[in-house]
Design brief:
The protein is of the alpha+beta class. The chain has five helices and seven strands. The protein has helices spanning 2-84, 90-112, 121-135, 156-176, 220-231, and strands at residues 118-120, 143-149, 153-155, 184-193, 196-203, 235-239, 244-251. A five-stranded mixed β-sheet has the order 2-4-5-7-6, with helices on one face. A two-stranded antiparallel ribbon has the order 1-3. The radius of gyration is 34 Å and the shape is elongated.
Length: 255
């Protein structure tokens, strides 16, 4: 009985040894195949990464070139207008030129930025506001800008529309809000909250005449403002002063 038991153990042990040897042999056979396949996949991943990196670099160069050319073309248009000039209506010429500048500045800031899909509104609004103040040839320090912008980035389309909006509202304040050399401040703030952008433009000037309703006004500037707000899918509210306060809200498109 004991001999049979030992024989059974011997047979079992031999079978285990054979099984282990077969597994070892299979492992030795498969190991180089797997290693070769891993190296192939690693090389393929490296090549695809290089191709994607190259494609992104080429795309960025192309976008920068497009922005640069658009900006140059808009500058050419502005220069042609300056040469032609509106001799009978220099104010209309200045407004038209500032509208072109607001669009050109979008492409200029994008061209200087590392991110070509969205625009830093703090940088854009600061430069746009300063350019508009200079264009009105006001006495030094007559009107100052108080800009309070969070870390807000907008897509290109939204930024162009906001540029047009800001151009009209700031121009309106500079043109009508501070007559006879009155001093004052134009405040601009921008926030993102709950998926919506809040853009506020206000001044402490003389405000609208008593017989003018901003919501029903048919002047070109305010008509354009309403059109741009509508294109943004937003809302416009005119709040009581002193001066004027325009509150605009629209959806924030994540870039």
């Amino acid at each position: 009985m004991k001999i049979e038991s030992n024989t059974a153990k011997s047979v079992y042990s031999r079978k285990n040894d054979e099984k282990g040897f077969n597994l070892y042999r299979e492992h030795r056979r498969v190991e180089p195949i797997l290693l070769e396949r891993c190296l192939e996949l690693e090389d393929q991943l490296r090549r695809q990464t290089a191709e994607l990196t190259k494609a992104k670099e080429e795309r960025d160069v192309l976008l920068r070139e497009i922005n640069h050319r658009v900006n140059n073309n808009l500058q050419v248009i502005s220069s042609m207008l300056r040469m032609q000039s509106f001799e009978d209506d220099p104010e209309a010429y200045r407004k038209f030129q500032n509208r072109i500048h607001s669009m050109a500045l979008v492409h200029k800031v994008l061209h200087e930025s590392e991110n070509l899909s969205s625009l830093n509104m703090a940088t854009y609004i600061d430069r746009l506001g300063s350019a508009l103040v200079r264009s009105h040839n006001l006495s030094r320090g007559q009107v100052s800008l108080d800009i309070d912008i969070q870390d807000v980035y907008l897509d290109l389309d939204s930024c162009v529309l906001c540029g047009f909006l800001l151009n009209e509202l700031i121009t309106n304040s500079l043109t009508h809000g501070f007559p006879n050399g009155n001093r004052g401040v134009i405040k601009i703030s921008c926030r993102v909250d709950g998926g919506r952008v809040g853009l506020h433009v206000s001044d402490n000037g003389i405000g609208l005449p008593a017989d003018v309703d901003a919501h029903s006004s048919t002047t070109l500037g305010l008509s354009l403002v309403k059109t741009f707000v509508s294109q943004l899918g937003g809302t416009l509210a005119v709040r009581p002063g002193p001066g004027l306060c325009y509150a605009i809200e629209f959806p924030h498109i994540k870039c």
